[in-house]
Design a protein that fits this description.
The chain has 182 residues and is α/β, with parallel strands linked by helices. It has seven helices and seven strands, in the order E-H-E-H-E-E-H-E-H-E-H-H-E-H. Strands 4-3-2-1-5-6-7 form a seven-stranded parallel sheet, sandwiched between helices. Helix 1 (18-29) packs parallel to helix 2 (48-58). The longest helix is centred in the last third of the chain and has 17 residues, at 137-153.
């Protein structure tokens, strides 16, 4: 791999389980060895994003946090570079334009919002970047049901679903990233 690729990861800012935290740290720890730089929403809270960033930095990688100032978040504890923006719309715009690929992992409303943003823009022809998704079976099932309802109603079609690349594990995400950028 000749140059570093910027991988935007959407995941929870909340702490879930110790196993999730360890898995996220280990996932991030593999980024530097494969030439991946992390783009993400910041990590001043002790959640999955923080573990991801710690893994990247403990293994000498780089990251860029995109932080909206409208929430008054503390940026002094951020790892790596920090870009402050006035609001969430600008945050998502910078994430979209500065990333080479997107990875969607276990998360809440913010993660869902970010997925919908990059997914809908891709489906409308706004970018051709890959979107790799790995999350819990319940999350995937709910998304499938919602999307199938849109297809049944005629407001979406199967090609839009096919714009996502589903992964079975974090190792699968990493392999698909490596293959994509080989």
């Amino acid at each position: 791999m000749n140059s570093h690729k910027k991988i935007c990861v959407f995941t929870s800012s909340r702490q879930t389980t110790p196993a999730d935290a360890e898995n996220m740290y280990n996932f991030g720890a593999q980024f530097p060895a494969h030439g991946f730089d992390l783009i993400f929403g910041g990590a001043d809270k002790p959640g999955l994003m923080r573990q991801l960033a710690l893994g990247v930095h403990d293994y000498k990688g780089t990251s860029t946090s995109i932080i909206p100032t409208c929430f008054g978040w503390d940026t002094s504890k951020e790892l790596g570079s920090v870009i402050t923006v006035p609001n969430m719309g600008e945050r998502k715009h910078i994430m979209l334009t500065s990333s080479d690929a997107f990875v969607v992992l276990k998360g809440g409303l913010g993660t869902l919002d970010e997925l919908m943003e990059v997914w809908s823009i891709k489906c409308m022809g706004g970018h051709k970047k890959p979107i790799f998704v790995h999350t819990t079976p319940e999350y995937k099932t709910a998304l499938i049901q919602l999307f199938q309802a849109m297809v049944n109603e005629g407001t979406a079609d199967q090609s839009q679903w096919d714009a996502l690349e589903w992964c079975h594990s974090l190792d699968d995400v990493l392999e698909k990233l490596k293959t994509h950028f080989a």
